[in-house]
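Retro notes - structure team

What went well: the batch runner handled both jobs without manual restarts.
What didn't: labels got mixed up in the shared folder, which is why I'm recording both outputs here explicitly, each with its sequence directly above its tokens.

Job 1
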Amino acid sequence: MTPGQSILRGPVQYLKGVGPRRAERFAQLDVHTGGDLLYHLPYRYEDATTVDPIANLKVGQDATVIGRVVSKGVIPTRRRLRVFRAVLRDESGHIECAWPGRPWLDRTIDKGDLLLAAGPVRFYHGRQLQPREHTVLARASDDGGTDGGTDGGASGERPAAGRVFPVYPATQGLTHRQVRAVVELNLSRLLAELGDDDPIPRAWLKDLSLPPLAEALRTLHRPPGIDRVEPSQRRLAFEELFFLQLLHARARARLRHEVRGVAFDAPPTLTRALLKALPFQLTGAQRQSWTEIEADMHRPMPMNRLLQGDVGSGKTVVAALAMLKAIEAGRQAAIMAPTELLAEQHQRTLGELLGPLDVEPVLLTGSVTGKARQDALQRIGDGRARLVVGTHALIQSGVDFASPGLVVIDEQHRFGVEQRRKLRESGQAPDALVMSATPIPRSLALVIYGDLDLSVIDELPPGRRKIRTAVRGPESREGAFDFLGEQLAAGHQAYVVYPLVEESETLEARAATVMFERLQACFADFTVRLLHGRLSSAEKEEAMRGFLAGDTQLLVATTVIEVGIDVPNATVMLIEDAERFGLAQLHQLRGRVGRGAEQSYCIVFHGTAEPSERLLAFEKTSDGFKLAEDDLRIRGQGDLFGKEQHGAALLKFARLDRDHDLLEDARRRARDIVHADPGLKKPAHRALRHELDVRYAQREALYQVG
């Protein structure tokens, strides 16, 4: 590194203790520069400030000890369980630690290592510590012997006590101790170059009781106490959430001010007629959502709104009102579904709903060919098709709308950014209403769909029969199959869902293909069909059409039916190895039944000794939004983000189960700033503009297309 070159922006290779080979390892952790290392934060901490002397440990106590490994080994038991054991010694005495079922630790913990171990003290031929967590603080082979000691004996443990040890994300060939050593060697220089630079105004930090950036980073790498960690984590979380919301706010502002929209201000003849003709009253949540959508459509800038509602909450009626509002203003409306079957279902439902108003849905999917396709394209092109229902076929070349007004996108998570961009490019930007039947927590919606306004239908129509849900163990399977047979014999239909297509050597979950053959034999008097994602599109369509028509009584499937069609005659959903599904998936699968007048049932089987907390929550409630909050709390946000479109890396520092107050504050501040200064050109906002240009340029480019 040349004199005067920035170590924050310079390659990590030139930092102390790194070099070319170790830089390759750091690259696997997405650490390429000194700044990346500064933001490569510990994922947990070992608190050695309250270390217990080994001699004072008592049975029943929860203890934290630091000791030298004086002996170790793997011991088999009569039940063929292999137990790794290690004896730790400090200045006061020694104790045996045991890790049942973890013999591989024999390869990672060596005699002479300095170990921090935390867990309960139990009686097993004397006192025994069974560590919940452990960390190798120093290797016997390390230069100097220990952290703070050089004699390799018990006296080296004392300096380790009284410290909080950060544990860093690591990778093959680069241990968390090596990462910690590199951070220690370079932290002071990195922080010195950072200085007092802070993109977040000091007044905001004071309002939120958060430390400045440099102080937060120093505390997270060198915590003086475990109680100082959380405020510093929340400081970085706020910065991350604020800039994400700033990107969202700028995307919304760009759409509103740079893209010409339509103000739908014609007399509400069709919408009033539909509301009058409905055989039921809208729920309070439906009325509120319609009010928000109607207000958006009155404005001369494009609507960009997410309509979120549980299965059966009545999103389609609200979407129909929005489409009629576009139609009564002389514009065309379209609804796009992820599958042909769903598109056909929408055509039937909307045809029945809007037929009396002389609004006929025109269908356009890949299966509409020949003269029917040419007729549909001509009617779309000359404006006679006021309402169009279709799939991705709606955004293919050759489909030209005469006067696009509103596009409804059903099941948003099935469509990517590219499809949304193409819809925006279809002439004068139509209003967009995105529908999703997958309830997600509000905090998650603000992060993923922050560029969309949010409407939520969080109540079901009155009189809807609740699906009876039961969580059962393997011993109840025969009884459940008997019940399934009774339902089929009574003329009903059923689903049996498995998490895998084929059996796996590494996973013990039952496979749909294997169980399909057994279920065919078990229910020989009925037609049983198999449906999974590896089938061709034509085969999947055929299987679902057969089930919809009633020709198939039992459908054996994977989660390909998670987003499916209405089969009112289906009354039983049986899910095997349910612990392998997320709560949102289970709730979506349960929503495949309960569509008709008959009582419906959902039976889920767990393959473990006891049902998990998630499955018990699923059994207890049918509220999709409550389950989504439980899923966030139990599983964490990484699993919920997934990796296809957003990735868990969307949030590196913020935790939505902890930082929802920071998210709301960040959203409010970001919207206020962009409302007052969309281009961030005022002197007070130059630091924010610079931060977006330097650290968020790539993400801001993605937001240009929605």
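Job 2
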Amino acid sequence: MDYDYIIVGAGSAGCVLAHRLSAMPGRRVLLLEAGPSDWNPLIHMPAGIARLVNNRRLNWSYVTEPEPALQGRRLWWPRGRTLGGSSAINAMCYVRGVPGDYARWAEATGDPRWAWRDVLPWFLHSEDNSRGAGTLHATGGPLGVSDLRHHNPLSAALIDAASLAGHPRNDDFNGPSQEGFGLYQVTQRDGARCSTATGFLDPVRHRPNLTIRTHALVERVLLDGDRAVGVELRHGRQRQRIEGGEVILAGGAINSPQLLMLSGIGPADALRTHGIAIAADLPGVGGNLQDHLDICTLDGCRQPVTYDHLNELTTGWRWWRHRDGPGSSNVAEAGGFVRSALAEDERCDLQFHFVPALLDDHGRHRLPGHGYTLHACYLHPHSRGHLTLQSADATQPPAIHANYLSDPEGLDLKRMILAARLSREILDQHTFDSYRGDPIFPERRLHSDAEYADFIRRKAESIYHPVGTCRMGHDAHAVVDHAFRVHGIHGLRVVDASVMPSLPTGNTNAPTIMLAERAAELICNDSAAHDTPTVTAATPPS
């Protein structure tokens, strides 16, 4: 046996697992990543995300199947393909969600340890917050969390405008209340991105019991009956079989279910159509797909204060010398959470991200002039999608059927219309009077719900939060149990956003890191039960 743990995917969860599991003396850990190392300097300069959009070396660049409710459009789903995964290319917003999210996870899994009082310590265990330690924040963890060193004057105008529109100010979305508008805290340290590769992996790369391999595409999990015994991977043109004591999939909401299906674990009838031998008939693999659909309102700006035409040389030089200025911006600097009149429970149901630049088609379509963008999404969609294989070839992407706005009662569309209306209401406040130019998207003033519905169907996009395709639970469609173990297969776990039963109220990166922290504790405890000395590396603060 070559390794005690084989971790497939060095993203937001995989780097956490590698850090914590390799802290166990005598345990050999292999971390496999399909993409390259994270050497690209644009990863580490926060504002470099604008230049990473079309970098296919670092991005899986998935696209959905034609979306019936969105005029048959194929939506672009970027996912990180490098050490750090999506935490290396995202906008760094650090949002945990709210207690109600985890109460629902506890109910869905039948495990009360998923309740807020039990997951909060794992959030704190990761955190090194520039604001210092307290009841809801911590210092000393691997993950840098900080206030922005620089923000655009338009971001301040957005917060003022939201206040005039009747929404409270909030300087901490991870504080006692999530509701309101303010500046996001970000996963940065000293003005640089703190991906999970930077925070968790870099400090432990020297450990002799940790092996990190990049450019290693895992094609299937090796099984001996109902037990996982290793993986088969492709490195360049060569294939290799690697054995391990336990295999942990951490590829995310798209790659992990795809790899399970390629390994014969999933909906039996669908896998047989691709000639895949069935190891475990788990109909829930690839199902329960959820994502936050997002609609952007864009206005032109009459003052050249936006980020649309920055001098990149000056910006980069200032950031390299001082780690501040526009280069340290996460671009989506301000935003907020609203509990609307249509909220179905105690949680906020709408989220906003403000970008002081024109952002069309994820920034891939550059627009002339100056402007600003307000993103709005509905946080608790009823619609559910699914993933299926297109081929038994691991190099071919799965078919992504997001099924946005497909709930029979049309609840998701009603809330998206409300989100777009609130965006327009906020941007119409007088704090933007000296900046506001012509409307860009929508191209004219809209009035009726039908007009807004048409705009949403024509322009809405993902805001990059897919979850749920290997759902935790104990029913017939659950894929893993409360301890991340794949039903029916020994020695195999899934630890990433795919196991979330439902979307959290906000961005998904921080909850994914929390999941990995808790999984590391469970795995360490299992190891301790099999004669390993007591391990404290994965124990959260009291």
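One thing worth noting from job 2: Residues 1-31+85-144+191-286+465-542 form a domain with the FAD/NAD(P)-binding domain fold (CATH 3.50.50.60).
We'll revisit the folder naming next retro.
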